[in-house]
């Protein structure tokens, strides 16, 4: 295992460059996905969600997180996998994007993995088209494909001409 000192480098502009990335893993419709751990604010089990009339199909509703209203996004619908959650106790991962908080409704939350950038691969052409819109890269993990999701893209839901989280 590398020490933290070996993991951090600097590029020519002096910005920190890491040889590794850390992700929170999750499953949606039996697909293994990951999001950057630095985007994750909280993990909730079966939160109470209030429906929002006339919201886009991807929006499950909103929830109250410590006095703050958070938009809940159904990740199955958002990435085009459809169907109902197989887990009655659906989990929510609260993320921050563009200064706003969003709740990503997933089937399960897995481990936190630190993966070397040298193992990162481009998106395969066999990845389902809707998922390709939101995935940035993949990692091959013991015969299982881990698709890394772009939190900014996931939370950029439009309703008419306004984007959720923007005025």
Quick structural summary:
Helices cover 11% and strands 49% of the residues. It is mainly β and 167 residues long.
Structural features:
single chain; 167 residues; mainly beta; five-stranded mixed β-sheet; 49% strand; globular; disordered N terminus
Q: What order do the strands of the largest sheet run in, or round the barrel if closed?
A: 10-3-4-12-11
Given the structure, what is the number of helices?
A: 4
C-alpha termini separation: 46 Å
| Main sheet summary | 5 strands, mixed
Unreliable spans are 1-17, 159-167
| Shape designation | globular
Q: Beta-strand percentage?
A: over 45%
Radius of gyration: 17 Å
Helices and strands: which structural class? mainly beta
Tally of DSSP β-strands: 14
Q: How would you spell out the order of helices and strands?
A: HEEEEEEEHEEEHEEHEE
Helical proportion?
10-25%
Described by its quaternary structure, the protein is: single chain
The residue-averaged pLDDT reads 81
């Amino acid at each position: 295992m590398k020490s933290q000192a070996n993991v951090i480098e600097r590029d020519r502009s002096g910005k920190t460059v890491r040889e590794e990335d850390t992700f929170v893993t999750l499953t949606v419709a039996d697909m293994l996905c990951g999001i950057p751990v630095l985007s994750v604010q909280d993990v909730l089990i079966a939160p109470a969600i209030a429906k929002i009339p006339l919201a886009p199909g991807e929006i499950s509703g909103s929830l109250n997180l410590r006095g703050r209203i958070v938009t809940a996004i159904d990740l199955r619908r958002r990435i085009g996998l459809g169907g109902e959650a197989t887990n009655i106790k659906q989990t929510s991962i609260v993320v921050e994007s563009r200064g706003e908080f969003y709740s990503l409704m997933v089937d399960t939350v897995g481990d936190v993995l630190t993966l070397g950038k040298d193992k990162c691969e481009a998106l395969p052409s066999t990845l389902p088209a809707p998922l390709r819109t939101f995935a940035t890269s993949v990692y091959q993990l013991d015969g299982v494909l881990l698709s890394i999701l772009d939190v900014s893209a996931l939370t950029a839901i439009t309703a008419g001409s306004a984007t959720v989280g923007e005025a």
